[in-house]
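Repro case for the chain-ordering regression, as requested:
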Amino acid sequence: DVKVTQSSRYLVKRTGEKVFLECVQDMDHENMFWYRQDPGLGLRLIYFSYDVKMKEKGDIPEGYSVSREKKERFSLILESASTNQTSMYLCASTPPRGRQYFGPGTRLTVT
Amino acid sequence: AQTVTQSQPEMSVQEAETVTLSCTYDTSESDYYLFWYKQPPSRQMILVIRQEAYKQQNATENRFSVNFQKAAKSFSLKISDSQLGDAAMYFCAYRSALSGNQFYFGTGTSLTVIP
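-- result from build under test --
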């Protein structure tokens, strides 16, 4: 079974802090994704990566950056956390023509 | 960009009854995949069922089945013999088979199962 893990289930940070969310998958998938999930808005794509060091902006990239130095790891970075970035963050990976496999999510609270 | 619409923010069903969740999508492509994902409260998102657009036969997984109407761009999920464990948020998703790597998700339907 594919496993996608995220570094934290719950995270509380202060406004202005730099925040790192890490995601690791164990199935050698090329494609990895970061989503933000908010009630009533569904899943919104922040960034995705289709290979090591390759990334593309999704629908809401502002205030976020990503890093993919190794195929199995995809990091989401909040350069200066703000209260409007309080949300659930979901990581996913997928093979070229397949379904998405999701991590358990990180619920981030910025105070 | 493709859009996926779930017009029912909330649904409820009596235990053991059948419920249908609606999903419509907008695309000009002919080859694509459609998915239903389930997200139980505070738990991981999991795949419920998948449909390839080129297949005319509706996908079925145990108590879960879809009604795929390609011309109408409709992809509804039917849950038969509903169980308490079916209570969750359900998301419909679209993926092109030809172009790009993105998935497009609906806004979700929250399903409550009444004992």
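Ordering looks correct now. The longest strand of chain B covers residues 88-96.
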